[in-house]
Structures are given as C-alpha cells and as structure tokens.
Amino acid sequence: MNSKPVTADKITIESTMHYKDTPVLHYRIEYPRFHDSGNRMALEDINDWYRKHAMDLQKKYETELYRDAVDLFEYTVRNQFPFHMFEAVSAYDLTYDQDGVVSLYHDEYTYTGGAHGSTVRRSETWDTRTGQRLSLFQFVKDPTGYHEKIMDAIRQQAELQIQRGENIYFEDYPQLISEHFNPESFYLTPEGVVIYFQQYEIAPYAGGLPEFTIPF
To answer: What is the CATH number of domain 137-215?
Structure first.
C-alpha cells in the first residue's frame, strides 16, 4: 500500500474579458494536477475530473456570466449609473494528504455588482490508489445513528460559539442545521472531518460559511 503524500501542481486559467473596449469581467480558475511515481492511472482519472470541471467553469464564465456583465453594462450606460466590473474566482485548498487519501475544497466567489459578492463551496475526497471518490459514510466509525450524532455535535459546537461570541447564527439554527445538512459538504483535515454549510443556510452573511470539525 502506497501511503506517500502526492504532489499537487496548481493550474491557473485567468482572463479579463472586454465589451466595447471596457473590461467587464475578470475571472481566475485554480485547479490541482496530482502526480507521484506509483499511482499514475488513478491520479490521471482524478486529474481528468478536475480538468473537465475547470473547462466547464470557464465556459460558464465566458458565456453566461459574460452575457450578464454585458447586459448590466448596457443598462448602466443607458441610465448613467457607474458600472463595476464582474469578478469570478474559483480557488482551492488542499486540506488532507495522508495514507493514500487527499481531500480539498473549492470556494467559488462571484461578484456581479451590489454591496458584496457571494461564495459557494464544494469539496471532494479521493482514494489516490484507486481514483475513487470517497463519501462521508466511509469515515464514520459507528454507522449506527451517525446522522443524529453529527447533528448533535454540530449543534453543541454552534451553541458554544454563540456563548463565546465567536460567531452568530439565525435564531432557529438548530432546525436549520438539520434542514441544510448535506453529506457531500465535507472535507478532511488532520484533526477530523469538517462539515460546512453554505452562506445564508444557518447564519447571516457575516457568519460566512460555518464549519464544524468532528474528530476522527
């Protein structure tokens, strides 16, 4: 069994798109390319997955988002409003690389005018020996009642954060935690499994993307 960490190169796609000589959209996409000496085929499958996702994201930015930017630019010109260039950034953070498992998350930030932009997070955890994506269930020691155990741990951490003044949540956060829990919204760190929620799901904008670590 190969438990050596893999090497990850950061690949970047970046461009500024113009309309009528005005820059209306800037985007940057980062994605990893993994390699080592022992798992080339498995890692190539993972690399293909990230390459395809980056290409899909680039197409989305250069068609849908660019079209929205042009529409808003034309609207601001007609109404003599200031135009603020659109921005899209997809950046990743490799959080775990041990024992043939890598885990990472991506934050996709989009600014389309207004007071602030929005961020959507996604994540993946892979077996680098097989190229298979791993699920949250595979990191649960005792599958019996695991869902409620995770919910209880998250609620307890949120309550403690509120008491310490470390974060703010909506008043009905205990219910919202259950409603918005997504078993795909996790990544690994050396300390354990991190469960996260998207913006506005359980907290206001100032609360960001709430995270809760469940120790291994």
So the answer is: 3.90.640.20
Q: Apex CA 164: angle with CA 201 and CA 116, to 5°? A: 40
Give the model's confidence band at 43: pLDDT under 50 very low, under 70 low, under 90 confident, else very high: very high
Work out the number of other CB atoms within 10 angstroms of the CB of residue 104.
21
Q: How far apart are CA 50 and CA 130, in angstroms?
A: 16
> According to DSSP H, which parts of 80-172 are helical?
146-164
Among the residue ranges 7-11, 86-90, 140-144, 195-199, the one predicted with the least confidence is 140-144
Measured distance CA(108)–CA(91) in Å, rounded: 7
CA distances, 73 to each of 11, 15, 28, 84, 175 (Å): 31, 18, 21, 8, 41
- Cβ neighbours for 169, distance < 8 A, ≥ 6 positions apart: 158, 161, 162, 176, 202, 203, 207, 210
d(Cα 62, Cα 60) in Å, to the nearest integer? Answer: 6
Mean pLDDT over residues 15-30, rounded? 98
CATH topology of domain 7-134: Heat Shock Protein 90 (3.30.565)
pLDDT in tens, 66-88: 999 999 999 999 999 999 999 99
Instruction: Please state which of the ranges 5-9, 48-52, 122-126, 144-148 shows the lowest mean pLDDT.
Output: 144-148
Same fold, 7-134 and 137-215: no
Residue spans of the domains in the chain: they are: 7-134, 137-215
Q: Report helix, strand or coil for 39.
A: coil
